[in-house]
Amino acid sequence: MRATAPAPEELADHTGAPRPRFNMPLDYEQARLGIAFHEAGHAVLSMAYGMHVITSEVIAWEPEPGKWAVTGNTAHQAQDTPPWRYAAQCAAGEIAQVQYLMAYGLWTPERAAACAAAHDRELAIDVLAQFGYRLGRCIVPEGGKSWGMVRGMARRNVGHLWREIRTVAHAMHEHTVLTGDEIADLTGLVNPRFEGGAA
Predict the structure, then answer these.
(1) φ and ψ at 58, to 5 degrees?
(2) CA distance 91 to 38
(3) How confident is the model at residue 137, as a pLDDT?
(4) How far from the centroid of its chain's Cα atoms is residue 183's Cα?
(5) How is the chain classified by DSSP, letter by letter?
(6) Which one, of 6, 192, 19, lies nearest residue 122 by Cα?
(7) CB atoms within 10 A of CB 172
(8) Exposure string (b/e) for 116-149, b if CB count within 10 Å is 16 or more?
(9) Strands 177-179 and 52-61, bridge-based pairing
(10) Which of 79, 132, 177, 184 could link 191 by a cystine bridge, Cβ 3.0 to 4.6 Å?
(11) pLDDT of 162-197, one tens digit each?
């Protein structure tokens, strides 16, 4: 656990605004593993959808003596990724974190609500809009999909890839940061290279 808080940019969404904070009614180890599942959901679906994963990590710190906070980050590169698959990997973090609560006997309505990741939804909406795709928060826009539909796509694939997500989450919980190549080695998935991209 870090002694100091991460830099503000590590706690910001894609627009630079601070990400919302939620009180997760779990102990430190349970909450940290939950964030590892969240990031593993992003990383594994990104890789399964043909994106290059750079790193995926759990970030924990002590904001004041006796208190703790956790978040995470997954860095990836996308090239020619189908837009709805990109959106589904954005939704996969929250889905995997809620699935972790269910699989480990920790689910409550309050804990599930604390897994909400509006910043991931807003990133998906903004990225898809750049390519002319309409993603609605609560409704199905004409010619588009709703966030609920995208979450359904993510839920299906999180289920198919649960073994890989679980493996990555436990390794991340133990080692804090995993490279994309380490994730590929753990899962048997391919971490693609893009011309001019990361090595």
Answers:
(1) -100, 135
(2) 10
(3) 93
(4) 14
(5) -BSSPPPGGGGB-TTSSBPP-----S-HHHHHHHHHHHHHHHHHHHHHTTPEEEEEEEEEE-SSTT--EEEEEEEEE-SS--HHHHHHHHHHHHHHHHHHHHHTT---HHHHHTT--HHHHHHHHHHHHHTT--EESSS--TTSEEHHHHHHHHHHHHHHTHHHHHHHHHHHHHHSEEEHHHHHHHH-------TTS--
(6) 19
(7) 28
(8) ebebbbbbbbebbeeeebebbeeeeeeebbbbeb
(9) antiparallel
(10) 184
(11) 999 999 999 999 999 999 999 999 999 999 987 765
Q: What is the pLDDT of residues 68-121, one digit of tens each?
A: 899 999 999 998 899 999 999 999 999 999 999 999 999 999 999 999 989 999
For residue 132 the two structure tokens come to: 């002319």
Q: Is 106 exposed, middle or buried (0-12, 13-18, 19+ CB in 10 A)?
A: middle
Q: Enter the tokens of residue 171.
A: 């390794």
Buried b (16+ CB within 10 A) or exposed e, 69-103: bbbbbbebbbeebebbbbbbbbbbbbbbbbbbbee
pLDDT in tens, 3-31: 677 888 888 888 888 887 777 889 999 99
